[in-house]
Amino acid sequence: MTVPPPGRLIIVSGPSGAGKSTVVRRLIECCQLPLELSVSATTRAPREGETDGKEYHFLSPERFEALRQEGAFLESKEVFSLGRWYGTLHEQVATGLKMGRWVILEIDVEGAIEVMASDLDPITLFIHPGSHEELEKRLRARGTETEQDLQARLKTAAEEMKSLAHYQYAIINDDVERAVDEICSILRQSQGT
Ligand SMILES: Nc1ncnc2c1ncn2[C@@H]1O[C@H](COP(=O)(O)OP(=O)(O)OP(=O)(O)O)[C@@H](O)[C@H]1O
Ligand SMILES: Nc1nc2c(ncn2[C@@H]2O[C@H](COP(=O)(O)O)[C@@H](O)[C@H]2O)c(=O)[nH]1
Q1: For tag attachment on the chain, is the N or C end more exposed, with fewer CB atoms within 10 Å?
Q2: Considering the domain boundaries, does residue 112 fall inside one?
Q3: Which residues, 6+ apart, have CB-to-CB distance to 24 below 8 Å?
Q4: Model pLDDT for residues 83-100, shown as the tens digit of each residue
Q5: Side-chain half-sphere CA neighbours of 182 within 13 A
Q6: Residue-range definition of the domain harbouring residue 14
Q7: pLDDT tens digits, residue range 109-154?
Q8: Would residue 3 count as lying in a domain?
């Protein structure tokens, strides 16, 4: 039986609305590496068009807390301080890495810093849109948040920008295809290291 080459862990963080999901989706489509997204668990409600198990595992607060108590999460955070939890499941990561996949965690800064301190040796990327004005424009255009939620996301964004120095690479997502090319080159260069 052939043993697959070892997998890698990749962390993608950045303010809500920076375009992380858009860029990661495209990266997985077009970068010739065995990339896969780790599907996080969350207690937030699904948005229109989101499917359980695809964008997230949508859980009740009780189920999420039970999993937390069991130690099922590599990390979990109450992102935006609005009572909604998000977490990376150990099993998602372990299964992907064992199969030689390059597993992408799309997670907030606090969760990312926790994973950086582990022995998983992640490649770390911080995606931002170039300006706070552009971020607000994108979040408003996406139209998925209430005004209260949007304001919480913008406030958190200002805080998250201060953590950019914790990351190995900062990517400006001013153009999706350009950002994807840049990230794909970074990942390819790290192959074999
Ligand atoms: N380079 C870009 N230029 C203009 N609009 C963009 C760009 N990249 C993404 N967008 C748009 O910005 C919005 C936010 O993108 P996306 O949902 O991917 O952000 P995100 O960082 O994953 O947000 P969240 O953290 O809230 O999940 C979307 O409507 C998306 O189509
Ligand atoms: N610490 C973690 N943060 C996570 C995880 N999954 C997503 N996120 C972060 O949440 C925000 C908001 O996501 P949205 O889908 O509600 O727009 C996003 O910016 C991610 O940074 C996780 O498992 N752990």
Answers
A1: N
A2: yes
A3: 12, 37, 104, 106
A4: 999 999 999 999 999 999
A5: 15
A6: 9-190
A7: 999 999 999 999 999 999 999 999 999 999 999 999 999 999 999 9
A8: no
Pick from 134, 77, 65: nearest CA to 109: 77
Residue 103 lies in a domain: yes
Burial class (CB in 10 A: 0-12, 13-18, 19+), 161: middle
Is residue 141 in some structural domain? Answer: yes
Provide the ipTM. 0.98
What separation in Å is there between the alpha carbon of 62 and the centre of ligand 1? Answer: 30
172 in ligand 1 pocket by Cβ < 6 Å?
Answer: no
Choose one of 74, 79, 85 to mutate for the ligand 2 pocket test, by most ligand atoms within 8 angstroms of C-beta. Answer: 79
Q: What is the CATH number of the domain that holds 96?
A: 3.40.50.300
Is 16 annotated among the ligand-binding residues?
A: yes
Predicted TM-score (pTM) of the model is: 0.97
Q: Is residue 59 in contact with ligand 2, taking CB distance under 6 Å? A: no
Is any ligand 1 atom within 6 A of the Cβ of residue 173?
Answer: yes
Whether residue 50 contacts residue 144, with contact meaning beta carbons closer than 8 Å, is answered with no
Domain count, the chain: 1
